[in-house]
Amino acid sequence: MNQKPSIKLEFYVNYPGVCEEAFRFYEQHIGGRITTMLYHHQLPGTAHVPDNWKDAVLHARLEIGETALLGADIPNAEPMRSAYLTLEIETIEEAERIYDLLSDNGEVFMKMEETFFAARFAMLRDKFGTSWMLIGKSKTP
């Protein structure tokens, strides 16, 4: 019997110095849990790291449901352009709450509204540069 190898897809997002702020925001407001937060100054041999970058995030891990979002601070990182992190949200109320939080000081590409495929749908880039698709799957009874 041929057995398929176990593979898990995870997402890695680079930030221009706001990784910790972004991950703590997501942890607080989306219900994720930070399991790793390593900084450049924690590595041995950091003499080559500029002083203003020693407190930047080298590697972070945020678990949201069964998925992990990984991230780091990278000098001159650009906002996400052609990839979106997608949240499937159980209720309209929760979808609208998350939309309000993520769109605040962000850039909305498609405002939250009902579509033919979802009770609520939106596309946006948050204030940290992360692009999101929000899908509100069902209406509250």
TrEMBL record:
<dbReference type="InterPro" id="IPR029068">
    <property type="entry name" value="Glyas_Bleomycin-R_OHBP_Dase"/>
</dbReference>
<dbReference type="InterPro" id="IPR004360">
    <property type="entry name" value="Glyas_Fos-R_dOase_dom"/>
</dbReference>
<feature type="domain" description="Glyoxalase/fosfomycin resistance/dioxygenase">
    <location>
        <begin position="19"/>
        <end position="133"/>
    </location>
</feature>
<dbReference type="Pfam" id="PF00903">
    <property type="entry name" value="Glyoxalase"/>
</dbReference>
<protein>
    <submittedName>
        <fullName>PhnB protein</fullName>
    </submittedName>
</protein>
<dbReference type="InterPro" id="IPR028973">
    <property type="entry name" value="PhnB-like"/>
</dbReference>
